[in-house]
């Protein structure tokens, strides 16, 4: 998943970034949500939600 932001012309061409098939914006949004959830679980210290991380 792409963390964003895009570097047009370096990482990706403008044509590919603006393509109707491009999913970069969705990947960035989903990545933010996933990182927030992981941080919440790690920082909350609630080990009832699965195996605790050692």
Structure, explained:
It is built from 2 helices and no strands. The protein is mainly α. The chain starts with 13 loop residues before the first helix and ends in a 10-residue tail after the last helix.
State the main characteristics.
54 residues; mainly alpha; 2 helices; elongated; transferase; Aspartate/ornithine carbamoyltransferase Asp/Orn-binding domain-containing protein; Asp_carbamoyltransf_Asp/Orn-bd; Asp/Orn_carbamoylTrfase_sf
Structure at a glance:
The protein has 54 residues and is mainly α. The protein is 46% helix and 0% strand. The mean pLDDT is 83.
Ordered list of secondary-structure elements with their pairings:
Elements (H helix, E strand, L loop, with lengths): L13 H4 L6 H21 L10
| Total DSSP helices | 2
State the total count of DSSP E strands: 0
Largest sheet: none
Shape estimate? elongated
Q: Give the topology string: H per helix, E per strand.
A: HH
Indicate the low-confidence ranges by residue numbers.
Answer: none
Q: Into which percent range does the helicity of residues fall?
A: 40-55%
Beta content: under 5%
User: Could you state the oligomeric state of the chains shown?
Assistant: single chain
Structure class: mainly alpha
- Please state the CA-atom Rg, rounded to the nearest Å: 16 Å
Straight-line distance between termini = 26 Å
Average pLDDT for all residues:
83
